[in-house]
Amino acid sequence: MCRCATVRRGADGTGPRLVAVRVVFAGTPSTAVPTLEALVASRHEVIAVITRPDAPAGRGRALAASPVAEVAAAHGIEVLKPVKPSDPGFMHRLRALKPDCIPIVAYGALIRREALDIPTFGWINLHFSVLPAWRGAAPVQRAIMAGDEVTGATVFSLVEELDAGPVLGSITERIREDDTTAELLSRLADFGSRLLVDVVDHIEDGDIAAVPQPEDNISFAPKLSTEEGRIDWNRPAFAIDRHIRGCTPAPGAWTMLGDDRIKIGPATIADDRTLDVGRLHVAKREVRVGTTTTDLVLAEVQAVGKKRMQAADWGRGTALAAEAMFV
After folding, report:
1. Which residues on neighbouring strands pair with residue 135, listed in sequence order?
2. Structural domain tally of the chain?
3. DSSP 8-state assignment for residue 279
4. The domain that contains 87 carries what CATH number?
5. At what angle do helices 181-205 and 139-146 cross, to 10 degrees?
6. Domain of residue 65, residue span
7. Among 88, 129, 197, 253, which lies 20 to 30 A Cα-Cα from 171?
C-alpha cells in the first residue's frame, strides 16, 4: 500500500515531517465513542464526524444528538448528520473535506459506491467479530447465543457487499461464561479502538496490505427482533442462559406470565433440577424456573411498566398462583 500522508520539511528545514492522516470518522452509538476518542488522541487529524440525525430519546421523546455527535461537539469537531449518506449536500461537503480515509464504527446506514470512492484510502470498518464469522448487525449477540468460546474484532476495507471487504487487522477475545452483550461489546469497543488506530498508523506509514476474507466458514448475524428475545423454556439451562445474556441489554430476553410480559435478566444455572419446564418457585431468597435440564435461578426481572428489580423481591411482591408458569 502506498503512503497515505505526504512528507514535508520540518520547521528548521533539516528533516522530513510526516503530515498526519486526515480522518473523517463515521459512527453513532456509545459503542463507537472509544474509537473516536482514540483517534482524537492519536497523531492523526479528525477533521469531521458523520453520524445519524438527532432522534427521540428518553421519557419525553425529545430530539437528542447521538453519543458520537456529543463527543465530537465537545472536541470542537465539525458534525455532519445526513438523513442519507447519498444526500447531495452531504456528498458535496465530504468531497470538499478531502479525507485520506474514513474509519466507520456502527454508523447505522449503508454507504454506496459514490461515497466509498471519496477518501483516498477508502472507508475502514471496525466490526465486532473475527470475519468472516458473524457478518451483520448483531455479531456479539449471535456469538454469545451460539455458545462461541472466542470472538474478536476486525478492521477491514468497506465494500458494498455486507462486511465482505479485505481485512486490514484483527484481534481475538475470549467470551467469558457470564458475559452479557453489553459487557463483551464494551471490551471489544475498547480493544477495537486501539486496533483501528494502529491500522491508520500503518496506512500512514505505508506498510500494510489488505488480505481477502476466506470464502468458507462465513456466518451471518442479522439484527435481533423483539420476538427473538422470547425465552423457550423447553431448552437446556445452558442454552437459555446464553440466550438471556446475548439479548442483554437489547432487545431484552422476555417471557409470558399469564397475559403479562416479563423481562428476564442474566440468571445462574443451578446444580439440580427440582421443577418442571417453565414452572416457577419463589423462595425467601431466590426465584427458580424449570428447564429441560437443571433449574435457572433468576437474578433480575422487570414487569411491564415497572423498574428492573431483584427477582426475590419481585417474587415476594407478586401474587403468584401455586402452579404459576412462564411460557
Report:
1. 220
2. 2
3. B
4. 3.40.50.170
5. 130
6. 7-205
7. 253
